[in-house]
Amino acid sequence: MITFNEERHEYSVDGVIVPSVSEIIKPLTVDTVEKAKPWLRDIAAERGTRIHQATMLMDYGEDVEVDADISGYIKAYRRFLDDYNPKWEGVETIVYHDGLGYAGTIDRYGTVNGHNCVVDIKTGAYNKH
């Protein structure tokens, strides 16, 4: 059984902690913000959580009201839904690769324009114009 400890951002399988995708790829990322201003990382993480929550509710047919600071992201996601009409089979789905021994959460998977897809919702920046 796969479990996720949100507070520690830690996955375990049958009680054994396994590495996450984020943990595995961290050495490949250039994270100057985290080194220079860790408080910015925390703000971005909190914003990303709110965006993921709002889009998940949208995918389950709920109306969402959001703060102004994330409204652009939500408008963009609504437009994506309207333009492509995806058929999700999984939303925020925790997965584990038994052969390679890592776990993670897939934002979305399903069919988009007749193609099987995995969709990763990015929340780093957007253009207001």
Written description of the protein model:
It is a single chain. With 129 residues, the chain is an alpha+beta fold. The protein has 4 helices and 6 strands; from the N terminus they run βββααααβββ. It has helices at residues 21-25, 32-36, 38-59, 71-84; strands at residues 2-5, 10-13, 16-18, 87-97, 102-112, 115-119. It has a 3-stranded antiparallel β-sheet, with no helix packed on it. A 3-stranded antiparallel β-sheet has the order 4-5-6. Helix 3 packs parallel to helix 4. The longest helix is centred in the middle third of the chain and has 22 residues, at 38-59. The chain is globular.
Search tags:
single chain, 129 residues, alpha+beta, 3-stranded antiparallel beta sheet, 4 helices, 6 strands, 36% helix
Question: Summed up, what is this model?
Answer:
With 129 residues, this protein is of the alpha+beta class. It has four helices and six strands, in the order βββααααβββ.
Give me the strand/helix succession: EEEHHHHEEE
Report the total helices: 4
Q: What's the overall average pLDDT, rounded?
A: 88
Read across the widest sheet, the strand sequence of neighbours is: 1-2-3
What is the helix fraction of residues, given as a range? 25-40%
N-C termini distance: 45 Å
Low-pLDDT segments, ≥5 res:
none
- What is the makeup of the main sheet? 3 strands, antiparallel
Based on secondary structure, the structural category is alpha+beta
- Give the C-alpha Rg: 16 Å
Total beta strands: 6
Strand content: 25-35%
Name the shape in a single word.
Answer: globular
